[in-house]
Design brief:
single chain, 353 residues, mainly alpha, 0% strand, disordered C terminus
Length: 353
């Protein structure tokens, strides 16, 4: 593919954002650990003490910087080009988790990381050029077409079911619940980001789009989506292993975002069949890579110490910690006992590293 100037700018911004976002996962999780240890109520159990933890705010700031870069990237390049580059944030977070959080990654996990990169490159190389848009009203017409309205309705129904029924029932034992909510809402937030980004871009070019109510509508939708994503992403990170959350979230989020973009912005119009097939094959490679990363969780769950628990580096997941502390009024003593068992747990990972 011959990159246009706008595509090159969007590509560069997306690359730079991946580093910030990938590192923010690790820093935020360390902040969540510290806050949970200090208050005794972790985010996965409904606690919000992390808002008083400076380390969590540093991670949040890094995530905001990365998201701002992504925000601008969507104004210059199509979602099919920008979104798959989120695989690089998976690599950053997986490698940092391996060294900083002791969430060990085996050789298959590293191979999965490589496959994520290769698949993303294939998608980027065959990505379509950005369609020219001259006003926010054009985007509104795209958003109000029947196909996209059906997609939005389906997302809202699924999210409501996940939040009201599945989250209380199995949110702490099934990683797909929290990440599913984040991914479904995330696909709508990306469409809002792209709409708002194009509006601001046109405004800076002298064509003021802030006068139109459609611009402010997209802004309100974006804020609502971000708040929802932040809440459930915190729950997912605090409950499950970062090496598991990141790739699963990436696959679901990217799949739904590409689907939403194809429906709303007609990204595949004008592309030949070969380019579309290449993009799909590239995405299959990425999905295959995430399956290998998912095997990290499955291998660890076979160890006796992790039976019935989503693998997470100590401190343990709130589900297992609550079971160990049942009937013990001294929570801090139990927490210390869990932390003191870290050497024993790590010694059993020899076959995994």
């Amino acid at each position: 593919m011959a990159f246009s100037r706008d595509n090159v700018i969007g590509f560069g911004l997306a690359l730079s954002s991946s580093g910030f976002i990938g590192a923010s996962f690790i820093i935020k999780k360390k902040g969540l650990w510290k806050a949970g240890a200090a208050s005794g109520v972790r985010a996965g159990n409904g606690g919000y003490s992390y808002v008083f933890e400076p380390l969590w705010w540093i991670g949040l700031f890094m995530m905001i910087v990365g998201e701002v870069a992504n925000f601008v990237a969507y104004a210059f390049a199509p979602a099919i080009l920008v979104t798959p580059l989120g695989a690089l944030s998976i690599i950053v977070s997986a490698v940092l988790a391996h060294f900083m959080l002791k969430e060990k990654l085996n050789k298959l996990g590293f191979l999965g990381c490589v496959m994520c990169i290769v698949g993303s490159v294939i998608i980027v190389v065959h990505a379509p050029k950005e369609h020219s848009v001259t006003s926010v009203q054009e985007i509104w017409n795209m958003a109000s077409q029947m196909g996209f309205l059906l997609y939005v309705g389906s997302v809202l129904v699924l999210v409501s079911i996940l939040i009201l029924y599945f989250a209380p029932l199995c949110g702490h034992s099934n990683v797909l619940v929290y990440t599913g909510i984040c991914s479904l809402i995330g696909s709508l937030s990306v469409m809002s980001v792209k709409a708002l980004g194009i509006s601001l871009k046109l405004t800076f070019e002298g064509n003021n789009q802030l006068l139109y109510p459609e611009t402010w509508f997209f802004t309100v939708v974006l804020l609502a989506c971000i708040i929802t994503q932040m809440n459930y992403l915190n729950k997912a990170l605090d409950t499950f292993n970062t090496v598991v959350v990141s790739p699963i979230y990436y696959v679901m989020f990217t799949t739904l975002t590409i689907l939403a973009s194809v429906i709303m912005f007609k990204d595949w119009e004008g592309q030949d069949g070969g380019a579309i097939v290449s993009e799909i094959c590239g995405f299959i490679v990425v999905v295959s890579g995430t399956i290998l990363l998912q095997m990290t969780k499955e291998v660890m769950e076979k160890l006796p110490s992790f039976k019935g628990n989503a693998y997470a580096a100590p401190p343990m997941s709130p589900t297992l910690t609550a079971g160990l502390c049942a009937g013990n009024a001294d929570f801090q003593k139990c927490w210390d006992d869990v932390e003191n068992s870290e050497e024993v747990l790590l010694s059993r990972q020899y076959s995994y590293t």
